[in-house]
Amino acid sequence: MEFIWTDSGDKNAAEKMIWNALKEALAQDEGICYHRYPIFSADRSRREPDILLLHKHWGLYVIECKGCKINNIERIDGQVWIMNDWHSSQETPYAQAEDQMFSVSNKFKNERGLRKGKSELIQGHVFIGLPFISKTEWREKGLDLSPASPPTIIFADDLEAEALRRRLQNVPAEEKQEPITDEQFQLAVSVLQGAPTLRRELRPEAKKPNSKAALLRQVEEQMMALDKEQERVAIQIPSGPQRIRGLAGSGKTVVMCMKAAWMHLKHPEWTIAYTFYTRSLYAQIKSLITRFYRWWTDGDPDWSKIKILHGWGGQDLQGLYRLVAHTMRRNSRTYSEAKNIYTYKQYSEILGNCCRELRESGDEVPQLFDAILIDEAQDFHFEFYKLCHSILREPKRLIWAYDEVQSLESLAIPTTVEIFGTYADGSPIVNLEGNYPDSEIDKDLILYHCYRTPRPILVTAHIFGMGLLRPQGAVQFIPTSGGWEDIGYEIVSGNFQPGHKITIRRPEENSPNALEKLTQGQNLIQCQKFETTEQEINWVVEQIYKNIYEDELKPDEIVVITLDPRRMAQDFNRLQTQLTKLKIDSARVGLDTDGSVFRKSNHVTLTGIFRAKGNEASVIYVIGFEEVGANSNLVVQQRNQAFTAMTRARGWCILTGIGQIAAILFREIEEILANYQQIAFTVPHPQTIQRNLDNLEYEKRRNRIKKAKELANKLAQVLAEIDDPELRKEVIEKLAGSNLET
User: Fold this and answer.
1) What is the spatial distance between Cα 666 and Cα 227, in angstroms, rounded to a whole number?
2) What does DSSP assign to residue 699?
3) For the chain, which domains are there?
4) Closest listed residue to residue 156, CA positions, set 721, 730, 717, 724
5) For residues 12 and 742, is the Cβ–Cβ distance under 8 A?
6) Cβ contacts of residue 469 below 8 Å, gap of 6+?
7) For residue 685, pLDDT beyond 90
8) Binning pLDDT at 50, 70 and 90, where does residue 208 land?
9) Whether the Cβ atoms of residue 548 and residue 555 lie closer than 8 Å to each other
10) Residues with Cβ < 8 Å from 427, sequence gap 6 or more?
11) What is the Cα–Cα distance from 319 to 278, expressed in whole angstroms?
12) Residue 700: helix, strand or coil by DSSP?
């Protein structure tokens, strides 16, 4: 059973006691359990069950928890509980829970796969949790004799594991759930997650059974659902900063958008900012936030309270830096102006200097937001983080998602102390160690499953990006087994001593794109070397024609990325001219489209690597690949660009280049690809690499998790050895905390 506590600000003792008892009783069962899952009724009022639980075999439960004691209940009249010495004179817990159940059940009714004729497969059960009242106290007061007494109550006596399991199964025969299949259960889970909003429109059935379109249709028919880590990241609201590390294709943007929608839904009074680096992501971000919000509310977000802001901004696109500057009544610098003032020429550093200028201006920096989410955080300078932190109200909910391997400019992998600094006493301004108090919400999280990119492409991109089979030696490296495990790999053999051989593998379950099985992993990456640019462009045009007319793909499923910015205009002009002759439309991002839109319907997309970040396509062409070896001083950045370009593919990746440099690079890639299922390499000496992809903070996090698991196992053993129900109850109550709020 997966348990998700959604808000670190909730400290209700009654809910916590029931929650902890459920965790102990159902730990080995199959299902998912939420604390404060938001539901909206037809009258647009928000109704949050204290606990919403979906059990594969027993059904759906809404549990309304009350922290009252027996003396607080005077009598029960119909649906109304008359209360004494309580925060309200009346309570209607059962009616409240029934309304919540009705609202959430309606979500299942829309899914044909969860119906059997006119009947729903998922059975709903309503319970009241009274952890501070025993069955004896209830009977002695005569409440059990009331005809309106709820038939399903969890009393203090029911908190022991076996007793609680019996209580949850004690429902009328007509409400018991019939067995459901694994597919039906996963569909039910996906409905609660809001995953139906992510479904692609099913493409028409292909004419050719083995065309690329036919294979993609099979992949897309698979049910879309979030994994447990994605969902935990998406719907938990921290009471302070939170860092989310995720590799390419792990769904960082999806979960960040879901998190933004969830926060806006749960706290409509908050002002929230979602900021990002790549201009062409704007439309995708707005669409995702809107779709998630509509799933839970049937309405649209209040865009005056949730703002989508490019990091810098421009005349046609609002930006976080520009917004802060204008709020401070200062002129915001344009990129053209700023790059002539500051000696640094990298985009992120120029923006960083502009942000520092605002912070150090001597003017008061306004606190504008209750939460800021930073997507593509690896591409922002320290000073941008500091400005975001400065403009947040307490408790400084700064949430950033990043993948250091996709950093296209900076080589730094900073710790939070290096980014935010320390107080006068030496304590860190931002501390990401452990969980937030009185909650189960981590400050530091990792997404290591990759859903977008097929495993052969991802493994090849990782190994090539680090240069682990590069003839001249690796350029960046992860020097610990824990570091590799963080991004979804397993160590097969070897140790991390310089000069020693290491063998690693990426389990299929960590890259579950079904295209690998459908193709046996063949031809998902293709390398093609040419002698001239003209030959390269001509060949790419021919392949695009085949993709459309033989592989049955739509033009907007195809993206051409160039790694050579100097040749971009010339190469794309040639491509467009030749594609037009074949009656194939194409669009250059930022020239033929609005800069905030990545793809144009029924057009092949042409782009540079910086605008491609965060986007994806069925077929990716990466042209100008020889650029990866063109400048030895930028070898890490160039390989990161290659990694980023390759991992835009959710289907096929075609690499093209010119001359001997391309030939050498392609031999390296083909060697990796031939061994992608289990690959061996020599551990480089630390002094020979330019970038270490692990740091002390990552290692501390792994040690904390290991110790927490060991402690949890010991605690479970101790509880199992306690025979006295009263003592067991006392231990659970102490774990829940002594705060007896309702």
Assistant:
1) 35
2) H
3) 2-193+721-736 (no CATH), 228-447 (3.40.50.300), 455-692 (3.40.50.300)
4) 730
5) yes
6) 463, 668, 671, 672, 681
7) yes
8) very high
9) yes
10) none
11) 12
12) helix
